[in-house]
Amino acid sequence: MTSTLLMVGTRKGLWIGSSDAAREDWHFTGPHFDMEEVYSCLVDTRGQRVRLFAGASSSWLGPQVWRSDDLGASWQETPGGAVRFPEGTDAKVERVWQLVAGAEPGVVWAGTEPGAVFRSTDNGETFELERALWDHPHRPQWNAGFGGQAFHTVLPHPDDPDSVTAALSTGGVYQTSDGGASWEPRNQGIRAEFLPEGQQYPEFGQCVHKVTRHPSRPERLFLQNHGGVYRSDDHGATWQSIADGLPAEFGFSIVSHPHEPDTVYVFPINGGDRRYPPEARARVWRSRDAGESWEELGDGLPDHFYVAVMRDAMSTDGHDPAGVYFGARNGSVWGSADAGDTWRCLAADLPDVMVVRAATIAD
């Protein structure tokens, strides 16, 4: 038997939803970390016991990485906040934007604001700064996007522990192939539309919003940019546009299907000042051929939806058929138990949703 867990991080706390494999009836608990910003969540199913992580930020006490070994019934804080800059860096962590399991047992990665990546080798007890990335000569030229400067994506290679891909706004995609000893930009072909003509394809400085990939085909990456949707078939060395067929090239979220490496989902929204879906219709778009074509998914979704879905507020579970979920800035959470064909509202009137993480758990 399997069950389904859904973590929903908001600007005012964390909610945890649970259901069985059918995903018809849901029960939510919360708020955990009431009135704290929760920008990152992780359901770590690698060990004998599931461990939940939450990156919460208190306006009084600052950021903290919390962990739970009883599915959220109780929480323990990591010593000293765990994710902290070492002395001499003249920087402090504002928020933890990303928590993700590594390719090796016990490894957990964190991406932060300001833009830095940290690694834990003791299952989230302590974290160490990836110093070569922090000291990268490009860093002084990384700017802050509208939401701040942060490493919001960390993608460990599923088969090669020395290879990690990370992305930030606004700096672009960086990658290490030597266990963090060095990092190189991987942005060839990604357009920075906000730069002057003739300068829109720089080595770095793109405003990448999210990157995803399927573990069974790790050399293929999908990317949602500030303006543009892209695919790389050579592990980020080069990128090509796959935005044709979408109603808008702007968006924040992009996620892969858990079983089908050619299937990917996006939630397009208008660029500029109108940060809501085209025609204000909530629609998820799915490609089953790696971005060569797209189909609109809206059965059960509202036609009056004047809010956005943020970069980490979309997720999939491990069931077959796959579950797809997203949360919006109006506090609604939507789910599909049939890979996006039909949708229904799972929760409403929550605070501004920043992150959604789904997982399948063996009972």
From TrEMBL:
User: Residues of the signal sequence?
Assistant: none
Give the matching SUPFAM superfamilies: Oligoxyloglucan reducing end-specific cellobiohydrolase
Q: Which domain of life is it from?
A: Bacteria
The name this protein carries in UniProt is WD40/YVTN/BNR-like repeat-containing protein
